[in-house]
Amino acid sequence: MLPTIAKRMNDVQFSKIRELSEKARQLDASGVPVYSLTLGEPDFDTPEPAQKAAINAMRDGDTHYTPNHGIPALREALAQKLLNDNGIRAEADEIIVTAGGSEAVLNTLLAILNPGDEVLIPSRLGRTTSLLPT
Questions:
Q1: How many angstroms separate the CA atoms of 68 and 96, rounded?
Q2: H-only helix segments in the chain
Q3: pTM of the predicted model over 0.85
Q4: How far is it, in rounded angstroms, from Cα 73 to Cα 92?
Q5: Which of 113, 117, 77, 83 is nearest to 97 (CA)?
């Protein structure tokens, strides 16, 4: 016998940004020119050097989970980039690499908020304009 789905799942709504992303994908697939500004997905293919590095890593057996804070060499490179390009001094052990912006925001909020803290999340800032055809 299959388990039943929890009742609370009836109240779960899809993220609006995911809905807009799907609508943009459908419009694009139907031939409508779309500039999707929804998910932060790049509008270019993975650069050749990154593709080669990934292939080499796989061939070298570097296919396992990374450390929770990110690959040490990447964190060192990010610390150097912050110093060189932005004038920000940061040690590699002060940097955490996440799988995306949403994870970074969630981790930050979990790190600074306590039970009972109030968080205001604006759903509209001034006038909004849809970039998708209606």
A1: 8
A2: 16-29, 48-59, 72-86, 101-112
A3: no
A4: 9
A5: 77
